[in-house]
Amino acid sequence: MLHFIGFFLIVVSGTAGELCIGRAMKEVGEVHDFRPRALLRVAGRVMRIKWLWIGIFLMAIGFFALLGVLSVENVSFVAPVTALSYVVGGLGGTFFLGERLNRPRWAGILLVCLGVALVILGKH
User: Fold this and answer.
1) What sign has the CA pseudo-torsion 90, 95, 97, 100?
2) Rg (Cα) of the chain, in Å, rounded?
3) Nearest-angstrom CA–CA distance, 9 and 20
């Protein structure tokens, strides 16, 4: 059961953190000027957006969960299983960020799920 909780935290909180940071960057807008002073202004704007800090917090939870799971499982098992984050990312991109995912992208996510299923079946 602890392994399941660890994988859940890795996949859901880590990906939710990425989605929150993506939302923060959408609020800032596209960066066109890459001179140091302009980048510092963008960084200052980003630092004031709550989604950035929520995202960092969630990604930290995912990172520490990853450390915990790696202390008891092989990387060759953990890395493929955490690819389920593509599912969470696709759903989060659709419902949280309002992105449109086309059929080929959903098909790719399904293939990832099938690959994860094979890795899990191969463990037993």
Assistant:
1) positive
2) 17
3) 15
